[in-house]
């Protein structure tokens, strides 16, 4: 057996870093500014411990473009580096100065957020540069003593002694020809807004004009002054205690996150956890209408105030990706390039905790001001229903505040509503039947029939309704949902009593044959029912099971084959209505016209009569005036 060390050849590693380490070349700016933030944070900590002497001064990080010389500069006034440290942290790949600092001062740091981990971020500069230079002076150096490091993206480098008046580091990127977009002010401004918006140290990019008002009243004079353009807010809302923030602070933060949004969120949830893992953030509930105009990728993931991604699937439960806001955690495991999550038990724990915090907040809001919660129900119900379908623990919590809204706009929890309808809506099998409508206007006639029987009807109009009621039926014993137009009302809530037909067996057979001869049998299944004579002569319904399966398949789920089935309807004939006898008493064309007119009326009630069929029906009706 033999042992040895694996050698990494720099000739081979540079092309890999330049092409494959980061999924997007624009990431270089985030990495270099993060390094500058770390250098500044280290200096603050050393000063606090008495290891760095003198005044810290202005610690603002500068971003400068020199378009003429095709250079982009990132300048900080942090700890800087000596020649030995350049050799240790720059000339050796994957040797992290941040990790080294944390180990050296373990237990002595005052909550310092050091960003770097892998020691590779600096090399992202070579993705956009033909040459990279470092001019750096350590806080430990003698006056003007500095070093100048130069490399052209290969294993060769130069390291010289130079003079530099101030402590800190200047990174000079000589931008390559294929990356000259990064010499444009608008492009760099866009990247700073994306990646540096909330970094912990002020970042300046050029200047801006500001109006200053001097004096009072009529003597007031407004003048314009040039001030540094600071691109970031170093203390965003999620870094503060909820006790220190008011509603207007959260509203301002939302505008800061989404400056192009014109709608205000309904409410917010502030996450502030330090055990068993680090997690902070603010989540906002947007207004989501029943048509489900949803925008995902609105939650931004940060690590120590450094933007990572807005694709948070995995750490945020799927149903909460409909929310907006920010999550920040030092404990979220990321890949080497900090561009996506690595799946591990911490991610799952954080996801479960976020679900719990959201459920806690919703229950708190419901208990604190039920009326206000109920007013917002239509805007948040899709998110809550989605959560109840996808997270069992959330379902158990949400049953306490998920609402049922009836056609009179009265609102009940699920348990309250089951108690409300009580024995009145229990069928002969002992099942409580909840009648619902997807469209109160379109299904008005069916609702009226249900109400005439003393039944109550709820409105369930979200795209998840079929999935949602299926979940409720499986979770509650002897609970059944039926849409009001799925059958006649006596069949939807079937009691023991049955109506008797006024027609004989022979007449019933003749009636069914006459109907089937004059309607489209591929579209309608003719069914005779012995109903009260005051009920409509013909009613068209969509069988609950068939419609529900089709809706579930359309929104994901249900049998895939259901989407291929033709549209079929139940054509229910009231055998006790006078029209039934009239149909039997007529023959030939007169019978056909009578049946077609009655069928068209039933189709009209269900909004199924269109085009030529509607035109022909109107013409026949006019001819019979």
UniProtKB/TrEMBL annotation:
**Keyword annotations of the record:** ATP-binding, Chaperone, Cytoplasm, Nucleotide-binding, Stress response
What InterPro entries does UniProt report for this protein, alphabetically? HATPase_C_sf (IPR036890), Heat_shock_protein_90_CS (IPR019805), Hsp90_fam (IPR001404), Hsp90_N (IPR020575), Ribosomal_Su5_D2-typ_SF (IPR020568)
Entry superkingdom = Bacteria
Binding-site residues for ATP, renumbered to this chain: 31, 35, 76, 81, 96-97, 169, 338
Entry's Gene Ontology molecular function annotations? ATP binding; ATP hydrolysis activity; ATP-dependent protein folding chaperone; unfolded protein binding
| Gene3D superfamilies according to UniProt | 3.30.230.80, 3.40.50.11260, Histidine kinase-like ATPase, C-terminal domain (3.30.565.10)
Q: Which family does it belong to?
A: Belongs to the heat shock protein 90 family.
Please report the name of this protein according to its UniProt entry: Chaperone protein HtpG
Origin species: Phaeocystidibacter marisrubri
